[in-house]
Amino acid sequence: MKSHAQAVIIGGGVVGCSVLYHLAKAGWTDIVLVERAELTSGSTWHAAGGFHTLNGDPNVAKLQQYTVELYREIEALSGVSCGLHLTGGVMLAGTPERMDWLKMAHAKGRYLGMHTEIISAAEAKRLMPLVDESRFVGAMYDPLEGHLDPYGTTHAYAQSAKLKGAQIVLRNRVVDTVQRPDGTWDVVTEKGTIHAEHVVNAGGLWARECGRMAGLELPVLAMEHMYLLTEDMPEVAEINAATGKEVITALDFEGEIYTRQERGGMLLGTYEKAGKPWSETETPWDFGQDLLEPDLDRIAPSLEVGFEHFPAYQKAGIRRIINGPFTFAPDGNPLVGPVRGLKNYWVACGVMAGFSQGGGVGLALSNWMVHGDPGFDVWAMDVARHGDWATLATTNARVKENYSRRFRIRFPNEELVAGRPLRTTPLYDRLKADNAVMGESYGGEYPLWFAPKGAEPKDVFSFRRSNSFGPVGDECRTVRERVGIVETSGYAKYEATGPAAEAFLSTVLAGKMPAQGRISLTPMLNPRGKLIGDFTVGRLGPERFLVIGSGPAEQYHMRWFLQHAPAAGVRIKPLGSRLQGLSIAGPRARELLQGLVRRDLSTETFPFLSIATMDVGPVPAIVGRISFTGDLGYEIWVEPDCHRALFEALWRAGQAYGIGHFGLRALNSLRLEKSFGTWAREYRPIYGPVEAGLSRFIRWSDPTFIGAEAAQMEKSSGGALRLVTFAVDARDADCIGDEPIWRDRQVVGWITSGGYAHAARASVAMGYVPAALAGARDGFEVEIIGERVRATPLAEPLFDPSGSRMRA
């Protein structure tokens, strides 16, 4: 075993071996994988081995597509068979709502280059004869469905890595990871210590325990997962003889089951509602290639539905029941990337669908380690999407919920309930008393919309316009006609102070830094010139800046800030819940606020993009003349113990001006009406500032910021894409994001976000099209739930195109 390595990968499952292979392929050969037992000894060896390309996030779906296409490569290189069975598969819809969901998934696949097909229940029966077609309303066929041999695939990765110079050490448990003062690591094993520049935690079932060695509590939990193997079935033999092929895979959402052929019989697996966690606090190190005790009673409800939907199973004998643990993150997606505050410590864990996602995870992480960037958008997998609020108890509650909902529909207006409420502001009870329907973001509770008095504050889940449509419209009109108030505590807040604060911010941010008492808007770019952030920066003093960004990206952005902060001269810290916020917006916002402050708020003395400290009623506050609604408005920031008093002062004074609540859904409608983009939708690491329409915010004359060279290249070339706002001829369903944009009978782009602009009375959507089409004014369509409707590009925002209201 080596005493020194460029990187040590902990864990010899399919994910660890994929990371090892991709690092070796990228040119790192001084790398070692250390495994406590044998390769595949955790969850990998007992996996069902299925793979598919479907995922709720299109960027993850693309990585899953890459994973499936990778298997031929590693087979050819290693000479080891992956046991690949590319059978194709059907996803079965038992309800109209599920059929709508499949139509939306099929539409996403159009612009990802996938070749799925929406088919009838009769066609699904023809492709998969074991189905009782009377139980279904339709299906989606995917030619890239199938299954493989978990053992062979893992060894194909491992052998391919070894052929490129990587080393694998088996039967040697890592017992500690200790970081040296220079940022390198001592990986302490039972057989000695390896000094490494980088450590990768791909510990699988033991990722949590490996993380604890470095002081981390990673949000992962193992769940028991069962599948059964039938004895040989004559129906299977008949299908094989008639078609000359295997029985294709099938996924039955209503039965919460998946099935495929296994030798002469069938494999049937479940994601039952009554999911059971395994080793909730600590995974035993002596757990090896072991299985858990089967519990047919727990999966009986799913099996009963399965037997109805696949009648031949009623007569089949059970040959074997497999029950083994698999790890999950709270939202079901992997945890990948560098960990904030730990130099060169990387994670690749919580990869429940290892044979669908393992290749993509290995590619993304190797790119990140070698080149400093994953090379594409991996936000949905980034470990930074979970903050310190994702404690052991919260993680366990949410993983259980996610497992039980694995095959259930997640509607666009559906908020999950496990582990809530967790982080609440001083206004939580006050807003609930006013009939707020609360949503969750980054562990915090915030009002989505307000139900009318006497009505139950509850969402009716739907892909179409639901019961919140009318009340949200009222909230939007309150803002546009009078004045509305919304809680903004969910934004991420940072304070940068010190003599080098301006120089630091000028390095990490691509826009100009404001003068004292002023606000500037600025993107943040990675070295490839792509958007990794969108911020409001207010200067409160010569060496003091308040930076406001997207709430869910706080850990993501702090990781970047700390990575690039100088050793001295600046302090950058997240303010989190230590600074709470409210925003007022609308034509009467100034009148309202002027009655509560001593400072003159006229345009001449406190114009648009001003910021200052002042008392608002009895409360010391920071007030910024800015609003995400695109209207006249103010953002007001206070310490938590003054938050309630600030609200009450504004609410009482606002009665004279017709004040009303508005929530995050109304805010989304208002910003779409103004063509304002937002982080994680319009602004992501696959778009450049020119493409996103943010050129006016870039410091082109002083290109010393990160990503400047790449941004200049984009400016010179014009970029490949353009962000466009469309008015959509929608009926009872609006765009929500990820819908394909059509022109001339071809998919030419995709929608990033959409909704209904209530004040303008128009369905609106934002999306990217090729730059060459950005000037076209007709011929576009958007596909909404399987139906293509006309989409008209807008030359200017629906609301206040001149910005006169915003600057009034």
From TrEMBL:
PROSITE patterns linked: PROKAR_LIPOPROTEIN
All copies of domain FAD dependent oxidoreductase central, residue ranges: 371-424
Gene3D superfamilies: Aminomethyltransferase beta-barrel domains, D-Amino Acid Oxidase, subunit A, domain 2, FAD/NAD(P)-binding domain, Probable tRNA modification gtpase trme, domain 1
Record has Oxidoreductase as a keyword: yes
Pfam families found in the cross-reference section: DAO, FAO_M, GCV_T, GCV_T_C
Boundaries of every GCVT N-terminal domain copy: 427-701
Source superkingdom: Bacteria
SUPFAM superfamilies (UniProt xref): Aminomethyltransferase beta-barrel domain (SSF101790), FAD-linked reductases, C-terminal domain (SSF54373), FAD/NAD(P)-binding domain (SSF51905), Folate-binding domain (SSF103025)
All residue ranges annotated as the Aminomethyltransferase C-terminal domain in the record: 722-800
Cell cycle recorded as keyword: no
UniProt entry keywords in alphabetical sequence: Oxidoreductase
MF terms in GO: oxidoreductase activity
Domain FAD dependent oxidoreductase: start-end pairs: 7-367
Record-stated family: Belongs to the GcvT family.
Protein's UniProt name: Glycine cleavage system protein T
Upper taxonomic lineage: Bacteria, Pseudomonadati, Pseudomonadota, Alphaproteobacteria, Hyphomicrobiales
